[in-house]
Amino acid sequence: MLRYxxxxxxxxxxxxxxMSIIAFLIIQLPPGDYxxxxxxxxxxxGVNVDQAxxxxxxxxxxxxxxxxxxxxxxxxxxxxxxxxxxxxxWNRPVWGLIAERLAPTLSVSLLALLFVWAVSLPxxxxxxxxxxxxxxxxxxxxxxxxxxxxxxIMALTLMYLAYRYMGQTVGGLFSRxxxxxxxxxxxxxxxxxxxxxxxxxIGTNGTAALIRILRxxxxxxxxxxxxxxxxxxxxxxxxxxxKYPVRIALNPFVSAIGWVLPELIxxxxxxxxxxxxxxxxxxxxxxxxxxxxxxxxxxILLLGVLTLIGMLISDILLAILDPxxxxx
Amino acid sequence: MTHVHLESxxxxxxGPAITPIRRxxxxxxxxxxxxxxxxxxxxxxxxxxxxxxxxxxVMYLIAAFAEFLAPALPxxxxxxxxxxxxxxxxxxxxxxxxxxxxxxxxxxxxxxxxPASLKRTFxxxxxxxxxxxxxxxxxxxxxxxxxxxxLHLMGPLKSGDTMYLLGTDKLGRxxxxxxxxGTRVSMxxxxxxxxxxxxxxxxxxxxxxxxxxxxxxxIQRVIEVISSMPTIPLWxxxxxxxxxxxxxxxxxxxxxxxxxxxxxxGLAREVRGRFFALRSDDFVTAARLDGSSExxxxxxxxxxxxxxxxxxxxxLALPTMIVAETALSFLGIGLKAPVVSWGVLLQEAQNVRTxxxxxxxxxxxxxxxxxxxxxxxxxxDGLRDxxxxxxx
Lengths: 328, 392
Description:
The structure holds 2 protein chains of 2 kinds. By secondary structure, chain A is mostly helical. Chain A has 2 domains: 15-83, no CATH class; 100-327, MetI-like fold, CATH 1.10.3720.10. Chain A is 78% helix and 1% strand. Chain A has helices at 2-28, 34-44, 51-61, 67-81, 94-129, 134-148, 151-165, 185-222, 225-232, 237-243, 245-255, 257-275, 280-289, 293-321, 323-327; strands at 86-87, 92-93. In chain A, strands 1-2 form a two-stranded antiparallel ribbon. By secondary structure, chain B is an alpha+beta fold.
C-alpha cells in the first residue's frame, strides 16, 4: 500500500511541473508587466515614485531576466519559502489573500461533492433496479437537462427564482447583519439559506453524470449469475442488491472524483463570481482584469494543485476499496 | 452509399477496414449493406437523436440566413423602448361589428412613468394594433456582407412601427434580432473550435497510440496535465491576456483557439485507445506486410476506420466549446460588443435586478444555449451508439 501511494506521489511530480509552467505562462502572457503600468499610473497622478523601491522589485521578480530564470525565481520562491509573490493591486503578499479564501472555497467544494454523492447514489440504484420505469425516465431526463445547463446560467436562474418567489436576495454567504457577527445558531441558519444555491449549482452537473455511470455499472452487475443465484436462494431484494452489486458498482463512484473534481473546482470558480461569494473565483477574475498577474497565476496553480490532491485521495481510496489495484 | 462499391473496385488499399461483413440469415439488403448504410440504419432508430440532428440543422440555417430572418438590425437602438416586454403575435382582429377578420398583428405598448423614480415601464396595450406581415421591406442590410437587400422574413408593415417579439434590452434593441445574429457567432465558434481540436486530437492521439513507448508516455503526460487542470480558471487566465486594442475578429479567433486548446484531450484519448486496439489487427498487419509506410498505415488504413467514432466524440465535444465561449463572454473577458453572441447577450442579464425587470433577457439566450447543448448531447449519444454497426 505504501509503495502504491509512493508511486502515485512520484507520478504527480511531472504533472505538477507541467501545471506550474502553464500557470507561469499565464503570468507572463499579458504584454508589459504590472510594475510598468503601475509606474505609469503613479506618475500620471503625480505620486512620487521611489526609484530604489522599483529597482528592488525589478531585482526580486527578475523582470529583466530571461523566461527560464524568471520561472525559476518564481517557483523556487513558492516551493522553498512558501512565497507566492506580491500582489501589486492589494499591496499584500499573495499568500495572505489566498489563505483567507481557501477555507470557504474548499468547504463549498467538499459540500458539493457530498451533495453529488448523496443524491446520485440512491437515484442511481433506483434507476438501475427499476429500469424503463416512469421514475427512471424522469431521472434520466433530469440528468440530461442537468448536464446541459451551464453552471452560471443555473446560478442566475436560481438567483432570480429565489428573489422572485422567496423574496431572498442571494449573493454572498451571509446576510448583511451576520457578516461580521460572531458564530451563533442564527448565523448558521443564515449560512444554510445562502449555501443551498451554490451547492445545487455546482453539484448538478456531477450528479447527473454520476447517476448515468452508476446506473450503467449496476445494470451490468445485476445481470450476473451470482445475483440470480442469490435471488434464487431467497435473499431479500435489498440485501441482494446492496450487499454485493452496489459495492462493486461503487468503485467507479470513487474513481469519478478524479474527473468530477476539476469540474467542481471550475464550477466553484464561476459560480462564486456570479453569486459574489468570498472565494477564489471573484479574486481571480479581478486579478486578471487588472493584470495583477502573480495573484492570478498563484490562484490558477493552487486550484490545479487542489484538484491533483483530490485525485490522489481518490486513487488511495480506490486502492483501499479494491485490492486488485493495490497489487498491480 | 458511396462506400459500398469500394469492395468491387479492386484497389488493394482502398480501405480494408470497411469491408462489409456478410451475415447469414439477415435480410439480404442488410447483409450486403456497407458500414455507412448500417451506421445510418442504426442511427435513425434513435428517434431523439434524429430530432436533435434536425434541431441543430435548423440552428445552422438560422445562423446562415440571420440577416434575412431577423426583423431588424442588431445595433438598431430605440432608447424610447428600453426593456419593452415581449409581444405576442395574433392573427385575427375583432371588427366593430364583432366579427373576426384576418390580419396578423402585435399589440402596441402603453407607457407609464413612475412618479417617484421617474422610471418608465411598458405594458402591452390591447387596444393598439400594429399590423405585421411576412416578407416585408425593412431596414437595409447586406446578406453575408455582400448582397444588398432589404427583405425580412417578418416585420411591421408600416416603417415607423416597432415589433419586439422577444422584448428589448437596456438600449431598446430587439432581442429576437440579436439572438438570431448571436446564433451565427455562437454556433460557428463551436465548429471552428472543434475543427482545431480535431486536428490536434487526431494527430497527437494517433501518434501516441501508433508508436507507443516514449512518445506515448510524453503525450499522455501532457494530456494528464491539461485534463486535470480546472478549465474555467485556465480559460479565464488565457482570455484575460487578449489585449483590449484587438479588433473583434482577432478576439473571435483567439477565443476560439483558447477554447479548443483544452478540448482536444478527450479526442486524443479516444483515438489513442482505438489505435491500440487496431494496431495489431489483421488488416493493419496485412497492409504493413504489403509494404505500406507508417504514415500510410495511420492515415490511409487506421484512421478511416475510426471516422464514425471520431464523429461521435467531436459532436460530444462541441457543446463544451459553445458553453466555454458563452461563459467567457458572460464574464466580460471573451467576445465583446459590437460582436453579438449568446454570451454577450447574457452579459446584460448579470444581476438580479435586471433579470427581475426584464426576465426575457435571461430566458431566451439561456434557452438557446441549453437547447443547443442538449441537442448536441443527444445527437452525440445517438452517433456513439451507431458508430460501431457490427456490435451485437
